[in-house]
Write a structure and sequence with these properties.
The chain has 118 residues and is mainly alpha-helical. The chain is built from three helices and no strands.
């Protein structure tokens, strides 16, 4: 009789351990899905914002060329647009870590090391 109750207690303990492990795995899966969804949302938003800013930048370059065209001629106006584009590209290249890398590192660290009280 005592032996039977010990076996039943052990079986119940094993069932509870299995249930805990299953729920823990499910929790990790859901956490991964949430983190990947947030990251993909950030990437999609970044792409849309980049495209819109790119269009705005191109329109500003066209306006700049149109304004400079009557003042200094076609070739100097196009050269000025090329110089502005090269300067913007250089600035973006020099700031690439602060613009791109640091944001992703901060976001991924926030996802992976999320506090339990959140």
């Amino acid at each position: 009789m005592i032996f039977m109750s010990i076996v039943e207690i052990f079986e119940k303990f094993c069932d509870d351990a299995r249930e805990y492990a299953k729920r823990s795995i499910d929790n990790q899966k859901l956490s991964l899905i949430e983190n990947v969804s947030i990251l993909l949302g950030d990437i999609a938003c970044g792409v849309v914002v980049f495209m819109l800013l790119f269009v705005v930048f191109l329109l500003l370059l066209i306006i700049m060329a149109a304004v400079l065209l009557p003042l200094i001629g076609l070739l100097p106006a196009l050269f000025a647009v090329v110089c502005v584009t090269a300067i913007v590209a250089l600035v973006v290249y020099k700031m690439r870590d602060s613009l791109f890398v640091n944001h992703f590192v901060r976001r991924l660290c926030g996802m992976m090391f999320k506090k339990d009280d959140e």
